[in-house]
Amino acid sequence: MLADFASFEESLHERRPAFGLDRLESADDERGADPVGERPVGAGGFATVRLPRRGNGTGTPEPPRDTREHRSKSHGLGVSCELERARRKGLGRRLSASEILEDPRGIGHRALRLYHARDDAVASSRRKDAALETTLLTLADFPPLFLVVTAVALGLVFGSFLNVVIHRLPRGENLAYPPSRCPGCGGAIAVRDNVPILSFVLLWGRARCCKAKISPRYPLVELIGGLVALAIVRTIVLELPPDTPAWKFALLFVCYLALGLGLVAAAFIDLEHLYLPDSITLGGTVLGIASVPLRPDASFSESLVGAVLGFLVIWAPFIALYEKLKGRPGMGLGDAKLVMLAGAWFGWFGAVFALLAGAVQATAVTLAVFATRGKLEEPEAVRAERRALYEAIENAEGEERAQLERELALDPLAEEPEPGLGGARLAFGPFIVLAILEMMLFGNWIRAEILGAMVLP
Questions:
Q1: Exposure class string for 16-29: b at 16+ Cβ within 10 A, else e
Q2: Poorest-confidence range of 143-152, 297-306, 314-323?
Q3: Residue 185 CB-density burial (10 A; 0-12 exposed, 13-18 middle, 19+ buried)
Q4: Residues 324 and 352 in one domain
Q5: Are residues 165 and 287 in the same domain?
Q6: Residue 200 forms part of a structural domain
Q7: Going by fewer Cβ within 10 Å, which terminus of the chain is more open, N or C?
Q8: What is the pLDDT of residues 125-137, one digit of tens each?
Q9: Burial of 354 (0-12, 13-18, 19+ CB in 10 A)
């Protein structure tokens, strides 16, 4: 009468409810224990397995456990580990014929011990999964007011740092060192005088150290930072499903806040210097492609196609072709990179919208300014940079002078602007930035309205 533990375990699965026991009791006939029955353990005969019913200590039988719980595939790894440990202890080894003849009930005892090893592993795995689910925070766990207040505070703080970026980045200075200093006397600014907006109000717009007037740009940028953060929370974060994990919506907020504040810095730098830093345009493009997995409606293919299209739609006609016709580029390369950023974040539609909406808004503002002032003045920083470049050429000699002259020839701002509206130089970057921000906050509505009006799917 040869027995195989694997065949007996298979037979246990067929009669599983009867073997849901937590402990083994004596199966002596004089105690009146009910036998479960006889099951075949081999091809040559039967072995009687006497097993008691499961009890709770009061003599009342307990119902068998749901077998479906132990067949869950989600706990297969933990069960396999427990079974392996049980087999190493000898519970799963093949039994010899002599062992079966000497102790036929040992087969059932071994099977039950292996069965309970499986049962304990399933229960332990379920407890771990339940604990993980209870500790994982989601968007529904955070009150909207808390999210709004936190976002606005972060926007104000980073908006204050944005003033440092706007002042130092186009000048090639270190953004982290030295600490903030008074633009009037160069003295260090105390922490109490660096509180966003509040310090400007309490100091009546003047520096504490030398009473120099503080530019209104500083509180304006801080206020814009807070408003951008507020808009991101209201239009993007709070529109996510309530079961969105906390880490995901936090990362999404950080990415959009970095985009918004970077665009604000680019707009103010372009207004003052007619220059868009690569660290913002190219860095924003990379961030747009890298953040695709976090954004529900984005895809890598659409992001890459949008970035390429956004660059070519300006570079090909307004830089390459215009330069061949006029001898100088019609737009700066920074504008092409900025539209490329829009395409990386919002696809081909975002790139086209940024260009067209930016052009419409720029035209409207230009006409309004020209109608009220009669002219468009070039930024003072651009005129100062041109004067410094001409002085450097006059003082240079030999190869250095030739190199500076080649740079001057390639610089679209090297010559004085022509008089009149046609020759005026306008910073186009801020209007592209405005269009990108509109796409970021109201993109779904804009896309639906425009494509719906064009009768496109």
A1: beebbbeeeeebee
A2: 314-323
A3: exposed
A4: yes
A5: no
A6: yes
A7: C
A8: 666 665 555 568 9
A9: buried
Distance CA 343, CA 349 (A): 7
The answer to whether residues 445 and 235 touch, using CB atoms and an 8 Å cutoff, is no
Amino acid at 405: E
Judged on CB neighbours under 10 Å (0-12, 13-18, 19+), 276 is buried
Residue 417, sorted as left (phi over 0), alpha (psi -120 to 50) or beta, turns out to be beta
Domain coverage including residue 299: 279-377+426-457
In a domain, 250, yes or no: yes
Kindly list the distances between the CA atom of residue 273 and the CA atoms of 115, 215, 276, in Å, as whole numbers in the listed order. Answer: 76, 17, 8
pLDDT in tens, 132-177: 555 689 999 999 999 999 999 999 999 999 999 998 998 888 888 8
Give alpha helix (H) positions in 25-143: 67-70, 76-88, 97-102, 105-135
Comparing 6 with 335, which gets the higher pLDDT? 335
Sign of CA pseudo-dihedral 263, 264, 269, 272: positive
Cβ neighbours of residue 87 under 8 Å, at least 6 residues apart? 93, 114
